[in-house]
Design brief:
Blueprint (H helix, E strand, L loop, with lengths): L10 E5 L4 H12 L3 E6 L8 H4 L8 E4 L5 H11 L3 E4 L6 H6 L1 H20 L6 E5 L25 H21 L8 E7 L1 E3 L9 H10 L4 E3 L5 E6 L1 H21 L2 E4 L6 E3 H12 L5 E3 L16 H7 L7 H16 L4 H13 L1
Parallel strand pairs: 1-2, 1-4, 2-3, 4-5, 5-6, 6-10, 7-9, 8-12
Antiparallel strand pairs: 9-11
Helix pairs in contact: 1-12, 3-5, 5-6, 7-9, 9-11, 11-12
Length: 354
Amino acid sequence: MINTNFWVNKRVFITGHTGFKGSWLSLWLHSMGAKVYGYAQIPNTEPSLYHVCGIDEILEKSFIADIRDSKSLQEAMEFSSPEIVIHMAAQPLVRESYINPVDTYSINVMGTVNLFEAVRNCSSVKAVVNVTTDKCYENKEWVWGYRENEPMGGYDPYSSSKACSELVTSAYKNSFFYHNEKRFVGVASARAGNVIGGGDWAKDRLIPDCIKALMADQTIIIRNPYSIRPWQHVLEPLGGYLLLAEKLFEDGEKYSEAWNFGPYDIDAKPVEWIVQEMCNKWGTEANYRVDSNPQPHEAQYLKLDCSKANAILNWSPRWNLETAIEKIVSWTKAYRNNENMREVCIKHIKEYQS
C-alpha cells in the first residue's frame, strides 16, 4: 500500500514526464502533495495526455529537452535538487526500433548512462527507479513467467536496448552507489508488462489503435491475434514504482534490486481477446479484422512472475483486465464528451487507491 503521507513535499524528478505513463505519474504524485519536476521532449503524439490534462500547470518545473543531452540533464537535476528520481524517458516501441535502431539504442542506453551520471553529481538524490520493460528478458517463449534473476536478452533493438539499460543500472549501482561508503543511493530497476489505459495515443500499440478506430466508427485492424502479453492498467505498475521508491528511500540497501510488476497469470491474454472485450464494452457496431500482411518479429508468449514484489513489497494487482478495459472505455467516452480529463484521471487514481 502506498503511503500518501510519505510523498507530501517530496521532491521528485521524472524523466519522460510528457509521455503517457509520465503524465499519469505526474498527476498521481501531485495529488499526494509531491513537488514534481519533469524532464522530457515535447509529447510525440497529438493529442497527448500531457496537454489534455494540462500537466505543465501542476509541475514545479518542466524541462523540455533530450535525455541524450547530458549537460542539459545535469543542469535540470541540479536545479531540481530531487530526493527521488524515476527514469522513464525512452523510445518505447518495438516496431519503431526496427525503423530507427540507432536512436533506440542512444536514447535507451546512453540516456540511462546520462541519467546516472547526473545522479552521481547531484548530492540530494536518495533513491532512483529505472523503468525498463518485461521485454528485457531473453524470451524463450515459455508458458511460465520470467523471474528477476532470468538472463537478459532481446530479439529486436527495443528489447535489446532495455536489456542493456538493465546492465547499465546494475553497473552504476555496484560501482558508484551501493558499495560507496561516502554516499549510498538506493537504485532499482522496474520491469512492467504491457501497460494500457486512457490517454494513450502512441502509434503501433493495440489499445490506441482500437480507440482510434472506435472513435472514428471504423473497423479495428489487429496484427498478431494470438500473441499473449501481461496486460495491465497503467496505474498498476505506477503504483509499484511509487511503492518501490518509498522502500528505496527508507532502506535502499534492502531493496536495491530488479523488480517485476505485472498482472496475475489469468490476465495474460491474447491480443484477440482484448479486442473482443473492447468491442463488447464499447457497444454499437464495433468490430475488427486481422491484418494478413507480413509483420516484423514480436514475441508470441510473454509473462512475468511477480511473486517477489508480492512477497517482499506486499504489492499485487488491484484491477483485473476486465476492469482495466472498462476504465479505458469510460475514460475515452469522457474525453469524447469534452469532460475535464484531469479530474477524470484523478477520479480513476482515487478509485484505484481505495
